[in-house]
């Protein structure tokens, strides 16, 4: 579910990621985005009707980048455990590399429309489908219990990944240490008992 964009749109969105990531939505200006993209401010408005629309499209682009990487990281693995380790490692690397930007962007949710919230919901469903495919494969190969509720299992995986991401974004003590992904996945697979 990757949005089709032209080269210029991508350049503008990537410039916006840098500007809004460094300065936040309120302090980041369209002039700064234009300068970062190496274009005139008017050119931005040929592609985006407002700063708010650009911000929302930037968030979608950011999440789609995550989805593509998460899919690529898990597809080359064979077992459920290795897929979950790959997904966890990708998730941590992505969040670590974008922690400052994520921190600034997540505090700007007042700038999203209802239409955008629907887009985010659909993107969330796509992310969940990556975990769901891993669970289904695990049930099929016997690596996971056959009586497992695959939808709840996928939500638990996504919830665990989101929790790790949140720690990396907002907890500097965790961010400075590395989570052992094998241990994380082993606890996820074996449960707490």
What does this structure look like?
- There is one protein chain.
- With 193 residues, the protein is an all-alpha fold.
- The protein has one domain (51-190): Tetracycline Repressor, domain 2 (Orthogonal Bundle).
- It has 9 helices and no strands.
- The protein has helices spanning 7-27, 30-37, 41-47, 51-75, 80-106, 114-141, 150-170, 172-175, 181-190.
- α2 (30-37) packs across α3 and α6 packs across α7 (150-170).
- It is elongated.
- It starts with 6 loop residues before the first helix and ends with a helix.
- Low confidence ranges: none
Q: Would you count the extended β strands for me?
A: 0
CATH superfamily annotation = Tetracycline Repressor, domain 2
**How far apart lie the N and C ends?**
38 Å
Protein name: TetR/AcrR family transcriptional regulator
GO molecular function: DNA binding
Domain HTH tetR-type: 6-66
DNA-binding region: 29-48
Keywords:
9 helices, mainly alpha, 78% helix, HTH-type_Tx_Regulator, 193 residues, DNA-binding, Tetracycline Repressor, domain 2, DNA binding, elongated, Homeodomain-like_sf
Describe the secondary-structure layout.
Elements: H1 7-27, H2 30-37, H3 41-47, H4 51-75, H5 80-106, H6 114-141, H7 150-170, H8 172-175, H9 181-190
Helix pairs in contact: 1-2, 1-4, 1-5, 2-3, 4-5, 4-6, 5-7, 5-9, 6-7
Short description:
The chain has about 190 residues and is mainly alpha-helical. It has helices spanning about 5-25, 30-35, 40-45, 50-75, 80-105, 115-140, 150-170, 170-175, 180-190.
């Amino acid at each position: 579910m990757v949005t089709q964009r032209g080269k210029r749109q991508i350049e503008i969105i990537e410039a916006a990621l840098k500007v809004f990531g460094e300065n936040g939505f309120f302090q980041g200006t369209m002039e700064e985005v234009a300068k970062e993209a190496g274009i005139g401010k008017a050119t931005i408005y040929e592609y985006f009707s407002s700063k708010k629309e650009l911000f929302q499209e930037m968030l979608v682009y950011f999440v789609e980048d995550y989805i593509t990487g998460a899919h690529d990281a898990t597809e080359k693995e064979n077992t459920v455990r290795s897929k979950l380790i790959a997904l966890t490692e990708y998730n941590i690397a992505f969040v670590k590399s974008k922690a400052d930007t994520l921190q600034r962007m997540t505090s700007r949710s007042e700038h999203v429309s209802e239409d955008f919230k629907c887009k985010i919901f659909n993107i969330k469903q796509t992310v969940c489908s990556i975990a769901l495919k891993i669970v289904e494969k695990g049930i099929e190969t016997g690596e996971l219990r056959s009586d497992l509720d695959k939808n709840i299992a996928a939500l638990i995986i996504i919830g665990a990944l989101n929790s790790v991401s949140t720690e990396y974004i907002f907890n500097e003590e965790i961010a400075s240490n590395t989570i052992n992904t094998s241990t994380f996945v082993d606890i996820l697979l074996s449960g707490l008992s």
